[in-house]
């Protein structure tokens, strides 16, 4: 539908992805919106009639990679263009780490969201800030939670804010 200003009308639950945002972070943000009453990835997957794949994606498991049918089904359900949804995933051939979530606290301070590129096996540090990526909280040594759970932007164990972790990042 088009308004007089030629802007597309979006449903109340529409959520624009951030540039480079990870699929895990995006769907965590999506489900936390007041207009969305779906609290877990399994239910959202069932509604899209695509099996339990969303939970795998949010944990950075992309083997097998998402199919066009799966992407179209979830994109339709959440009213997002398939191309924008595809941008949340790693490029074809790029391997990801799924045993630990990685974070550049300096990037997060600049714009608080998880970047998909931080999970690439080929990435050791942040090129922009020349800092090593964190996979554990520098205060309590707990693994950084999955981005889908980053509601407070802090360590789930000790509460240290991600933005304050930057002073504990090592040079790259």
UniProtKB/TrEMBL annotation:
<dbReference type="Pfam" id="PF06527">
    <property type="entry name" value="TniQ"/>
</dbReference>
<dbReference type="InterPro" id="IPR009492">
    <property type="entry name" value="TniQ"/>
</dbReference>
<feature type="domain" description="TniQ">
    <location>
        <begin position="15"/>
        <end position="133"/>
    </location>
</feature>
<protein>
    <submittedName>
        <fullName>TniQ family protein</fullName>
    </submittedName>
</protein>
């Amino acid at each position: 539908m088009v308004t007089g200003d030629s802007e597309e009308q979006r449903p109340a639950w529409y959520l624009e992805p951030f540039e480079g945002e990870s699929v895990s972070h995006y769907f965590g943000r999506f489900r936390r919106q007041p207009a969305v009453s779906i609290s877990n990835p399994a239910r959202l997957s069932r509604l899209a009639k695509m099996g339990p794949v969303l939970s795998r994606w949010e944990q950075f498991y992309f083997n097998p990679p998402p199919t066009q049918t799966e992407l179209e089904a979830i994109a339709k359900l959440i009213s997002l263009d398939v191309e924008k949804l595809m941008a949340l995933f790693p490029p074809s051939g790029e391997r990801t780490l799924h045993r630990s979530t990685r974070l550049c606290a300096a990037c997060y301070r600049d714009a608080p969201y998880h970047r998909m590129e931080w999970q690439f096996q080929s990435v050791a540090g942040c090129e922009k800030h020349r800092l090593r990526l964190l996979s554990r909280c520098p205060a309590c040594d707990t693994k950084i939670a999955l981005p889908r759970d980053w509601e407070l932007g802090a360590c789930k164990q000790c509460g240290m804010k991600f933005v304050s972790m930057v002073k504990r990042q090592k040079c790259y």
